[in-house]
Design a protein that fits this description.
Strand content: under 5%
Radius of gyration: 16 Å
Structural class: mainly alpha
Number of domains: 1
Helix content: over 70%
Largest sheet: none
Oligomer: single chain
Number of helices: 8
Order of helices and strands: HHHHHHHH
Number of strands: 0
Amino acid sequence: MNQRDRFLKEFRGVTIGTVSQQSSSDELFQNEVLRPILKLQNDLLLAAFLNYLIKNKMGFKNQTPEKKEAMIETALQKDIKLWNVFKGMIVGLFTTDELALYLKNSSSLDKRIRGMLIERLKGQVQLLENRSL
């Protein structure tokens, strides 16, 4: 393991979630890699989404909670540029081995990343609301 990989693993912290013998490889990757990265990057992810809302004049603050959640979901599913920014923030913290595994299973792992990211942002709607225009 090279110095960068060692640093990234130490920097991200421990596994979040349950890992067992029955866990699939995608589930292991989710709990050992994705969850710690999303937790680490949380403030950056919120800032990037807030910037998206402001740049696109989304009127986020004036919406119902249900509409806000729908706006988050729609943005991350439909706006490819936004999705690529978020994916880059996450993939950029992979080790070389994790990147190799991700590239083999990118389709299923992207679904997991998107789902986790949407839920993370939805869970922090109040923070986004307080900071948005």
